[in-house]
Amino acid sequence: MDDSDTRKIRNICILAHVDHGKTTLADHLIAATGGGVLHPKLAGKLRFMDYLDEEQRRAITMKSSSIALHYKDYKINLIDSPGHMDFCSEVSTAARLSDGGLILVDAVEGVHIQTHAVLRQAWIEKVTPCLVLNKIDRLICELKLSPMEAYNRLLRIVHEVNSIMSTYKSEKYLSDVDSILAAPSGEVSDEHLESIEDDEEDTFQPQKGNVAFVCALDGWGFTINEFAEFYASKLGASAAALQKALWGPRYFIRKTNMIVGKKGLGVGSKARPMFVQFVLEPLWEVYKAALEPDGDKGMLEKVIKTFNLSVPPRELQNKDPKILLQAIMSRWLPLSDAVLSMVVKCMPDPIAAQSLRISRLLPKREILDKGVDSDVLAEADLVRKSVEACDSSPEAPCIAFVSKMFAVPTKMLPLRGPHGEILNNLTDENGTSESDECFLAFARIFSGVLTAGQRVFVLSALYDPLRGESMQKHVQEAELQSLYLMMGQGLKPVASARAGNIVAIRGLGQHILKSATLSSTRNSWPFSSMAFQVSPTLRVAIEPSDPADMGALMKGLRLLNRADPFVEVTVSSRGEHVLAAAGEVHLERCIKDLKDRFAKVSLEVSPPLVSYKETIEGDLSNPLEDLKLLSTNADYVEKVTPNGRCVIRVKVTKLPPTLTKVLDENADLLSDIIGGKQGQSAKSLERSSLGEDENPIEVLKNRLVDAVESDILCGNENDKDRAEKCKGKWLKFLRRIWALGPRQVGPNILFTPDYKRENIDSSVLIRGSPYVSLRLGLADDSSAGDMATVTSSEVTQPLYTEAESLESSVLSGFQLATGSGPLCDEPMWGLAFVIEAYISPSVAQASESEPNQQSEQYGLLPGQVMAAVKDACRAAVLQRKPRLVEAMYFCELNTPTEYLGPMYAVLARRRARVLKEEMQEGSPLFTVHAYVPVSESFGFADELRRWTSGASSALLVLSHWEALQEDPFFVPKTEEEIEEFGDGSSVLPNTARKLIDAVRRRKGLPVEEKVVQHATKQRTLARKV
């Protein structure tokens, strides 16, 4: 197999929203080119790639799986991926191993939220996309559109997908939720659509051949060039000219045999675009002839004769019109030919693709240390060059990337090797044979040749070849036991595989947790880690029903953690085993896998553990007042350490919301900068969407300043002077950032105290230093130096030294307080603290014995300071009207008109906030966008289906954090309040209080609850027999 053979390989994945037809499309491709593993009659019904029982039962794909197809003399590795939001991590693993992606969009439903997500995934991974518009038959049979209306609809979808791609190209890094909310409702009007000329920059253009129109269920599909070739001889034009003319506002004038644009048409002309006239109308006629009782059967015979189709007479005489239609259409416009010819023509081979994708897979590293080994660098550079060139010669360094581990029952492994020898599959990697599950690595070879029995180095994402000895824990040596080609569920053993192929590898189960780079040399950089679209947010605590099964559960959790690329298994501070999944469907599958495959014990699963945050009520319309509170001497909480030596004053205010969001979103980048790592890790680069050559510190500094400006301008649009004054004050404060919390990178800020104020009597202020501001370049060393110059001659030097040593105690107290707030021990959110700690000299410095007794009596001073700071911060929050912050899902619902009422009833019960509703043009469906609190979302999809008889579908994506405006401590006191809210038992239940009490009860914290709430009236229940 030489270079020309590598050019005959295509690695593609199918990406789309849930239920848009990915697995059905894969079925037809497998039936046509899979070497007989699937009969064409069963294509679309069997769902060959969904081989798990759970997938067949739910009729959705839950994991990405690969199959090798042979089309003409090309080898195509096809990866089918899930479309459900819960399994979008599997989309990431599929996109990393592919060079091209087929983006499917339902012609009736159009672009949905998951379509945005997969387009972004393709963009991030630098995968070449092709568009497939599926379910064209529904436009004819269900919506009964005319060809012209159908053309407008298809034009609108292509335009919408192109506009999404162009926002990614212009690097407006919006989240998927933002991009949906930003899209103008109703898109473009039909008159306007007609005049849209195709932009040269557009990603998807049917005339370029990278858009296919298909009906996967009936097994037919076409690209424009098939019709162009057919009409070329009839119209006497070249196929290339027709291909350009068959999409967009191009019209064919029969009298003159000319193709003209919109301007060439006469006024009042009834001409239809060529795509309608020559492509859609013949399709509509065939459908009408076959499906309508009085259809013209002669039309069908004409199609069979013209295109010389061999349709068996049994199918022609079938009474079911659908079977007759499928028989004709799948032979006239075979789906597999249309899609695979597009794949071969429009998608790059591994050699071309890897040179395009190299900047994403192996970003160039800046070497700052001068004293590194030049041999190591030279070899690492050679590895990068051979990956870029996809070098498949045996001498090239062997590099592969494992995107996920998947578990296969040991009995499913092939019994015979590539040369017919009998294999012993029972011994595990450790030589034991207890395990029923065998872990295979889902890998793509990027350079060199991989052979069974070869020894390779397994590099984790943190490995750095330049730091030799200190990196031992990030590199392991492993032997590859066997290589398999994946055929859906089946595995075909091979002796070796070359660059550009996708294989399953056995023998790495003990060495790789989720993903890793395989290399034949230690001197190689690991591939950049994969970007996941969402994070696992749904957490439950699990324990075995029988405590004796704890060992089996631990082992099962270890296996599950390895088998699922996205699940997170942790042990909470209370000692519970917490399982974090992406959503309800994902969680159900994980629990089922644990019970039936990995642990094989019965489990107790807790109700979901929802995360909250705590904040205070802030007045956004008047940010200047908030700032004055921080800088004046009033409104503080004071605490004194038990030995009376340290007085602590804490002031707190709310940060502008955009600033909080920036701090939260850039946590990875902040931890790198504050931790002082020079080179950014690939992970933080992906998360924060930086360009490759941008300085992260500059970018982050600008983002912080922009966030403050945008918030101030929103609050003070009318009063420009006030806005400027407020901005100046905030920028001064940003120069004084001492620390962030919790865990050094959270969305809360600790500012250094204003040291210019006079000291109280003879005490000394613990000043702190604007460490974070210096790191972020918001303050320079000179301003930090000014602080050190302020000294007082009256007070002895030891007190200053002691004050400096206590700085870390103040910081620790701040971190502890922000990590667990006063309401229910949840982290704080978006707060700014100023902590002034004054330390006074010890009273008994005359006698030597007393300080020792004193320190023993109250414990060490740093510990006292830490506890006092923590208590003071929490008390300050309680004093300033605390509020609970909850996570919100963005919810996209599709509902038929008659079920709008029940759907709104379900939303109202879940405290949802509806953003917009709009009718989907040309269909009986309404699309509704709403925000649903995470705590109310469990069982939401099931309840919605139950109330709407299965007609509604909902998709939830984590969107943002939002403060509950309700006061958890509210009790009506004044006459007006009692009149409005009632008194005693008539007061409505307080939602915030209810949520806080539930969390406190779960954590074992005291809850203020009365057993008898309102003992005004005894209730006697009649016992009706």
Automatic annotation (TrEMBL):
<dbReference type="Pfam" id="PF25118">
    <property type="entry name" value="EFL1"/>
</dbReference>
<dbReference type="GO" id="GO:0042256">
    <property type="term" value="P:cytosolic ribosome assembly"/>
</dbReference>
<dbReference type="GO" id="GO:0043022">
    <property type="term" value="F:ribosome binding"/>
</dbReference>
<dbReference type="InterPro" id="IPR056752">
    <property type="entry name" value="EFL1"/>
</dbReference>
<dbReference type="Pfam" id="PF00009">
    <property type="entry name" value="GTP_EFTU"/>
</dbReference>
<keyword id="KW-0342">GTP-binding</keyword>
<dbReference type="GO" id="GO:0005525">
    <property type="term" value="F:GTP binding"/>
</dbReference>
<protein>
    <recommendedName>
        <fullName>Elongation factor-like 1</fullName>
    </recommendedName>
</protein>
<dbReference type="InterPro" id="IPR014721">
    <property type="entry name" value="Ribsml_uS5_D2-typ_fold_subgr"/>
</dbReference>
<dbReference type="GO" id="GO:0005829">
    <property type="term" value="C:cytosol"/>
</dbReference>
<dbReference type="InterPro" id="IPR041095">
    <property type="entry name" value="EFG_II"/>
</dbReference>
<dbReference type="GO" id="GO:1990904">
    <property type="term" value="C:ribonucleoprotein complex"/>
</dbReference>
<dbReference type="Pfam" id="PF22042">
    <property type="entry name" value="EF-G_D2"/>
</dbReference>
<feature type="domain" description="Tr-type G">
    <location>
        <begin position="7"/>
        <end position="240"/>
    </location>
</feature>
<dbReference type="InterPro" id="IPR053905">
    <property type="entry name" value="EF-G-like_DII"/>
</dbReference>
<keyword id="KW-0378">Hydrolase</keyword>
<dbReference type="InterPro" id="IPR035647">
    <property type="entry name" value="EFG_III/V"/>
</dbReference>
<keyword id="KW-0690">Ribosome biogenesis</keyword>
<dbReference type="GO" id="GO:0003924">
    <property type="term" value="F:GTPase activity"/>
</dbReference>
<dbReference type="InterPro" id="IPR020568">
    <property type="entry name" value="Ribosomal_Su5_D2-typ_SF"/>
</dbReference>
<dbReference type="Pfam" id="PF14492">
    <property type="entry name" value="EFG_III"/>
</dbReference>
<keyword id="KW-0547">Nucleotide-binding</keyword>
<dbReference type="InterPro" id="IPR027417">
    <property type="entry name" value="P-loop_NTPase"/>
</dbReference>
<dbReference type="InterPro" id="IPR000795">
    <property type="entry name" value="T_Tr_GTP-bd_dom"/>
</dbReference>
<dbReference type="Pfam" id="PF00679">
    <property type="entry name" value="EFG_C"/>
</dbReference>
<dbReference type="InterPro" id="IPR009000">
    <property type="entry name" value="Transl_B-barrel_sf"/>
</dbReference>
<dbReference type="InterPro" id="IPR005225">
    <property type="entry name" value="Small_GTP-bd"/>
</dbReference>
<dbReference type="InterPro" id="IPR000640">
    <property type="entry name" value="EFG_V-like"/>
</dbReference>
